[in-house]
Write a structure and sequence with these properties.
The complex is a heterodimer of chains A (711) and B (196). Chain A has 711 residues and is mostly helical. Chain A folds into five domains: 4-88, no CATH class; 101-304, Orthogonal Bundle (Cytochrome Bc1 Complex, Chain D, domain 2); 311-448; 453-575, Cytochrome Bc1 Complex, Chain D, domain 2; 585-696, Cytochrome Bc1 Complex, Chain D, domain 2 (Orthogonal Bundle). In chain A, 44% of the residues lie in helices and 7% in strands. Chain B has two domains: 4-34; 43-193, Cytochrome Bc1 Complex, Chain D, domain 2, CATH 1.10.760. In chain B, helix 4 (50-61) packs across helix 10 and helix 8 (152-162) runs antiparallel to helix 9. The longest helix of chain B has 25 residues, at 10-34. The termini of chain B are far apart. Classes of the chains: A mainly alpha (711), B mainly alpha (196).
Chain lengths: 711, 196
C-alpha cells in the first residue's frame, strides 16, 4: 500500500499524462478542419510536404482508445490506492483454489468436516474421483519428484503404495507426515565400530531376510548378531522388527528404503542417515492435504486390491518354479536385493546386466502385462526390444502357459525394488537389439520338446524341468561362435568363467558311476557320494535346485541318466572301477607328492575328511573324461560356498606357486587312474596351457596371490 | 503552439520524449523507491547466511538462472505448480534479483525445504537418477570443488552498503562458515533457503 502522498502522486501523474495526450490529439483534431492537401507547407531540398488531412479513422481510434482507458481506470485499479469500481484484485485469478470446489468435493465424499482435525476417513475420500483428481495434481506437483509418478518411491524415498510404513501408516500418520514432515535420522557407526565390525553387522542385517543368499562366513554372522544386540536393537528392536515410534525400520522384510544390497547396508551403517520429509503445512491448506492423503490412500488400495487378485496357491507354485528356473540367481546382484537385477554377464562382446524384475512400475516390470511377460520369458522379446540370449529364453520357451502364469503371479506378489537397471556395455553392432532378431532367426529353434510315448512320466517331467525352467543345457551344452548352443552336442560340456560345466551326457554319467540318488543328493545339498558342487554349480544349487522337491530332482536325474535323442547311452560303455591306492602304489614318487599335498586334507587314501575336504575316491570330477576341472581346481583353489553349514568344507589352497606343471600333471594322472579309474594321462603341456589361460585372466591364486608373468 | 519551429525542433522532440517516458517512471518507480521501508517492514525475507550467499553466487555462475526463474506469477496454474506467488516483499535482499525470464526448468522461488538434502545431492550429481525425464545437465564437479571463503566477507560488506542488515560479527565469521565447504553444500544451502 502506498502512503496517501504517493497515492495522490500516482493519481496526479496518471491524470497529467492523460491530459497531455488528450491535448496533443485534440490540437491536431482542431487544425484538421483547415487542412488543404494542395497547400504546400514546407519543402525539404525541393521535396514538398503538403497539408493533407490526418485520416479521420486514426483520430477516431485515438478517441476510442481514450474512452477505453478512461473506462479501464474507472473499473480496474490504476489510480494509486483506489481499487476501481469492480474491486478486482490480481489474487482473484486464484479463485481456482478459493472457490470451495475442493471443500465441496471433500464434503460430498462424506468424510465428515474437512477443516477440523476430526475423523477424516481417507478410505472414504479415496472413493471420490473429484478429490483424487485434485490429489493427483498436487501429488505430481509436490511429491512426484521424490516418490515417483506412481508413488512407488525410489532409493532414499519410500514407496507409498505398499502396506509398509515406518510410522504405522494410519490415516493420522499419513496426514501428519504431509503436514508436519518427518525426519528420519540414524547415527553413523564409523567412529564406534571397526570396518570389520560394520561388515559383520551389515551381513547379519542382510541375513535377516531368509530368502537372501549371502556369500558370508557363519562366523561373521555370529559376530554381527552380537554387535546388533549391543548397538542396533535399541531402536530396531531385539527382533529387528523396527519401532514405529521412532520410525526405525523393520529389517527383516524385503523393503529397503535406503538400498538393501549388502553394500548399501554397510554404507548406511557406516555413515548413518539424515532423511527429512519436508512439511507441507505452510504451503498447502487442510483440504489440499486431505486430497493428497486420499490420493496416496487410493494408490495403496489399488495395490492391495491388485495383490488380492493373485492366488496364494499359484504364488507358492510360482515361487517354486522361480527357484526351479533359478530366476533369482541371475536377477540379483551379488549380495544385492532379491530380483533387483544388476548381475553382470561378461560376453565376448561386452557386459550384459540382468534387469530388475520386481513389480516396480518405473524400474522393474510393473508395467508389463501377463502377455508381455510371457513374450519376454519365452520368446525373448522385452518391451524395450529383443532380449540378449543371456536370458535363457531358448530354454524357457518350453515352459507351459500354466507355469508361466504362476511365475507371473509370484513376481507380481514381490515388493517393488528401487534399483535402477545398469546399462549394458555391449559394443557395436551387438548393442543394437534389433540385430538379435537375426540371431533368433538363425539359432532360435522353436520346435517344441518331444516326449516319446515309450518314455515314463518321470522321464518326461525330468525332460521338461531339465531343458525348460532348469535350463541346464544353457551351461552344459557347448556354444558356437555366435554364442548359440550347438544342437548336435547336447550336454557335452562347456567352459564358463574358466571352469568346465562338465559333460553330463548319459554315457559320461554312467561311466563315472553316478546314480539317481547321487544326482538328487548333489542337486539337493551340493554334496554327494560323487563329490560336491563348486563354482557356478554351487550357486545353482544354492539358489535353485536345493529348493526343489526330491521328486522333481529325481525326475531330472532319470532324464539325465537315461539320455535322449542325440544323447543315447552306448551299452558298450563300462562303469569305471577305481582301485584306490595299493601298497605298491604307495611306494611311488607320485604318491609321496600326493600325500604331502592333497592327502593332508583329502585323506591318505583319498577317502576325504569330514568338515575338511571331500572324497577323491570315486569323485565324479576326478573320474571325468575331461580333466579340465581337476587341473583348474589345483591351480585356482576353491573357497567354501557356505551351502549347508554342517556339510561345509575348508577352503582349498591354490597350488599354482607350490608345484610345477610337471608335478601337477603327474599327480593328477596318478589320482585319476587310482581314484577315478580313468587311465588317460594328463600331460605337462595340458597343465601349462591351462595355467597360462588362467593366469592371463587373473583367476589363479587363492591364498597365494599370483603375480602375472611378464608378457 | 504547434508551429513549424516547435514541431520540427530536435530539442523539443528529445525533451518531450523524456517527459512522456518519465511519466511512467514517476508513476511506477519513484513511489516504490520511497516506500522500500514499508516493504522491509512487511517482509518475511531473511538475509542470506554466508554459506547461502556463496551458494547464490554458484547458482549465478553455473547459469542456473538461464533455465530456472524465481518468480511465481499470481495465476492459478502457476500457484498450483510452484506454490505461493512472489510479492514485492520477497526480494528485498536480492542484489540483483534472479527472477529470470525463461523457464526451461521449473520455477524455483519456493524450492526451499521441498526436497531433502539427499535428494538435492542425488539430483545435482545426476538429475536422471531421481527424475527420469529430466533434461537438466549433471553437475558432478560441484562435489569436488571447495570454497576458500576469502571474498565472502567483502561481498557481505558490499551488500550491507546496499541495505542488507549484516552485522560486523556476521561478516567476521563468514569466512569460517564457508571455508572448505564444497560448492554443492553451498548451492544446496542456497536452494534450501528459497521461499522461506
Amino acid at each position: 500500500m502506498l502512503t496517501t502522498f504517493w497515492s495522490s502522486w500516482v493519481i496526479l501523474v496518471v491524470l497529467a499524462f492523460f491530459a497531455v495526450m488528450i491535448y496533443v490529439v485534440g490540437s491536431y483534431w482542431r487544425i484538421n478542419k483547415d487542412a488543404d492537401k494542395d497547400r504546400e507547407l514546407y519543402t525539404f531540398d525541393g521535396v514538398g510536404e503538403n497539408d493533407a488531412k490526418i485520416p479521420r479513422i486514426l483520430l477516431l481510434a485515438y478517441a476510442i482508445g481514450f474512452v477505453a482507458v478512461a473506462i479501464f481506470f474507472l473499473l480496474y485499479p490504476g489510480m494509486g490506492n483506489w481499487g476501481g469500481l469492480m474491486g478486482w484484485k490480481s489474487q482473484d485469478e486464484l479463485q481456482f483454489f478459493a472457490d470451495g470446489s475442493l471443500t465441496e468435493a471433500i464434503q460430498s465424499a462424506g468424510a465428515g468436516e474437512s477443516t477440523g482435525s476430526g475423523a477424516a476417513n481417507l478410505e472414504q475420500l479415496a472413493q471420490s474421483d473429484e478429490v483424487i483428481g485434485y490429489g493427483a495434481t498436487l501429488f505430481k506437483t509436490h511429491c512426484a519428484a521424490c516418490h515417483g509418478d506412481d508413488a512407488q518411491g525410489q532409493k532414499h524415498f519410500p514407496n507409498l503404495t505398499d502396506d509398509e510404513s515406518l510410522y504405522g501408516g494410519s490415516d493420522q500418520s499419513i496426514l501428519h507426515a504431509i503436514e508436519h514432515g518427518r525426519h528420519g535420522v540414524m547415527v553413523g557407526w564409523r567412529d564406534v565400530l571397526t570396518d570389520q565390525q560394520i561388515e559383520n553387522v551389515s551381513a547379519y542385517v542382510a541375513s535377516l531376510q531368509p530368502e537372501r543368499q549371502l556369500s558370508v562366513s557363519p562366523v561373521s554372522l555370529i559376530s554381527g548378531e552380537e554387535l546388533f544386540s549391543y548397538n542396533c536393537s535399541v531402536c530396531h528392536g531385539d527382533d529387528a522388527k523396527g519401532n514405529q515410534q521412532v520410525g526405525a525400520s523393520d529389517l527383516t522384510d524385503a523393503v529397503w528404503v535406503h538400498g538393501g544390497s549388502l553394500e548399501d547396508i554397510e554404507n548406511t551403517v557406516r555413515n548413518g542417515l539424515d532423511s527429512p520429509m519436508p512439511a507441507f503445512g505452510d504451503q498447502l491448506n487442510r483440504e489440499q492435504i486431505l486430497a493428497l492423503a486420499a490420493f496416496i490412500k487410493r494408490k495403496q488400495l489399488q495395490s492391495s486390491k491388485h495383490l488380492a487378485t493373485l492366488n496364494g496357491a499359484t504364488i507358492k507354485r510360482g515361487e517354486y518354479l522361480a527357484y526351479a528356473g533359478d530366476c533369482v540367481a541371475c536377477h540379483t546382484a551379488e549380495n544385492g536385493e532379491l530380483f533387483g537385477g544388476g548381475l553382470p554377464f561378461p560376453t565376448p562382446f561386452g557386459n550384459v546386466y540382468s534387469t530388475n524384475i520386481s513389480p516396480h512400475r518405473d524400474k522393474g516390470i510393473g508395467r508389463y502385462t501377463y502377455d508381455e511377460f510371457a513374450r519376454a520369458v519365452r520368446d525373448g522379446k522385452g518391451k524395450h526390444g529383443n532380449l540378449y540370449p543371456a536370458m535363457p529364453y531358448t530354454s524357457y520357451q518350453y515352459v507351459t502357459d500354466e507355469d508361466t502364469q504362476a511365475l507371473w503371479q509370484f513376481l507380481q506378489s514381490l515388493p517393488p525394488v528401487n534399483r535402477e537397471n545398469t546399462p549394458d556395455t555391449m559394443m557395436f553392432p551387438s548393442n543394437i537389439r534389433m540385430g538379435l532378431g537375426a540371431w533368433n532367426l538363425a539359432f532360435f529353434d522353436r520346435d517344441p520338446l518331444s516326449y516319446p510315448g515309450d518314455k515314463s512320466e518321470k522321464w518326461k517331467r525330468g525332460k521338461y524341468l531339465t531343458l525348460g525352467l532348469g535350463h541346464c543345457a544353457e551351461c552344459h551344452t557347448p556354444r558356437n561362435l555366435a554364442q548359440a548352443m550347438k544342437s548336435d552336442a547336447p550336454m557335452q560340456g562347456n567352459v564358463i568363467d574358466y571352469w568346465n560345466a562338465p559333460d553330463i551326457t548319459a554315457n559320461e554319467l554312467y561311466e563315472n558311476g553316478w546314480t539317481e540318488k547321487d544326482i538328487v543328493d548333489f542337486l539337493k545339498t551340493g554334496d554327494s557320494a560323487k563329490g560336491t558342487a563348486f563354482a557356478g554349480m554351487a550357486d545353482v544349487v544354492k539358489n535353485s535346485t536345493r529348493h526343489m522337491s526330491r521328486e522333481d530332482l529325481s525326475a531330472m536325474a532319470t532324464y539325465l541318466l537315461e539320455g535322449d535323442v542325440g544323447n543315447v547311452r552306448d551299452p558298450a560303455r563300462k562303469r569305471l572301477a577305481p582301485s584306490g591306492f595299493t601298497a605298491a602304489d604307495k611306494q611311488r614318487e607320485e604318491y609321496r607328492l600326493f600325500a604331502e599335498t592333497c592327502g593332508a586334507c583329502h585323506g591318505q587314501d583319498g577317502e576325504g575328511r569330514k568338515d575338511i575336504a571331500p572324497a577323491l575316491l570315486g569323485n565324479g570330477i576326478i573320474a571325468h573324461s575331461e580333466p579340465y576341472n581337476t587341473i583348474a581346481v589345483v591351480l585356482r583353489g576353491l573357497s567354501p560356498d557356505y551351502l549347508e553349514p554342517n556339510r561345509d568344507y575348508m577352503p582349498m589352497t591354490s597350488f599354482n606357486d607350490i608345484a610345477g606343471d610337471g608335478q601337477i600333471a603327474a599327480v593328477i594322472t596318478f589320482i585319476r587312474e587310482k581314484l577315478g579309474g580313468r587311465d588317460t594321462p594328463v600331460t605337462r603341456e595340458m597343465v601349462r596351457d591351462l595355467r597360462r589361460t588362467l593366469e592371463k585372466n587373473r583367476v589363479t591364486g587363492g591364498f597365494h596371490e599370483q603375480e602375472l608373468p611378464p608378457q | 503552439m504547434l508551429t513549424k519551429e516547435f514541431t520540427q525542433s530536435v530539442w523539443i522532440l528529445i525533451l518531450s520524449v523524456i517527459a512522456v517516458a518519465s511519466l511512467s517512471l514517476l508513476a511506477w518507480v519513484l513511489p516504490n523507491l520511497f516506500t522500500k521501508s514499508e516493504l522491509v517492514k512487511n517482509s518475511t525475507a531473511k538475509p542470506f547466511t554466508a554459506l547461502q550467499l556463496a551458494g547464490r553466487d554458484i547458482y549465478i555462475s553455473e547459469g542456473c538462472a538461464n533455465c530456472h526463474s524465481q518468480m511465481v506469477r499470481p495465476l492459478a496454474a502457476e500457484v498450483a505448480r510452484y506454490g505461493r506467488f512472489t510479492t514485492a516483499e520477497d526480494d528485498i535482499y536480492e542484489y540483483p534479483n534472479l527472477w529470470g525470464s525463461k523457464r526451461t526448468g521449473p520455477d524455483l522461488a519456493n524450492l526451499g525445504r521441498k526436497y531433502s538434502y539427499q535428494w538435492h545431492e542425488a539430483h545435482l550429481r545426476d538429475p536422471r537418477a531421481v527424475v527420469p525425464t529430466s533434461i537438466m545437465p549433471a553437475y558432478p564437479w560441484l562435489f569436488e570443488k571447495r570454497l576458500s571463503g576469502e571474498r565472502i566477507g567483502r561481498k557481505m560488506e558490499v551488500l550491507r552498503s546496499l541495505g542488507v542488515p549484516y552485522t560486523d560479527a556476521e561478516i567476521d565469521r563468514a569466512r569460517l562458515e564457508v571455508r572448505n565447504k564444497t560448492y554443492a553444500q553451498a548451492l544446496i544451502a542456497y536452494l534450501q533457503s528459497l521461499g522461506e
